[in-house]
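pinging the channel bc i need a second pair of eyes. not urgent but kinda urgent?? the chain im working w is below, pasted from the shared doc
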Amino acid sequence: MTTPQVKVLRSVDNLSLADLVLKPTAIDGTEPADATDNALTVKGSSVDIGFWACSPGSFKTARDGVNEVILVLEGRGTLVSDTGERVDHMAGDMVLIPNGWSGVWEIHEDFKKQYISIAV
């Protein structure tokens, strides 16, 4: 039997985020670009863990079939639901974006988050 081993999946200091790519759902004439570093997909489960970075701008998004928990590592943003509810968040905040949520991300300054997505 193998002994389970603890390991570092990623370090914020050396993420392997590819070149930022323009968001196809950008709105308001903004040009946000993003990249994802998926650090781990848990085999036999519906859990994905990773990092995401985005430049300033606004874009439409939805959480269909997943709950996402994020920890904001850097920057400021606002989530604006389709019903107009606004939730501001900044470095240090942990945020739940629930299954079925849809609206707009407003990224105010260069933004990095760690995420855990759990399919429902």
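so The chain has one domain: 20-119. and The chain has a mean pLDDT of 90. — does that match what u expected or am i reading it wrong
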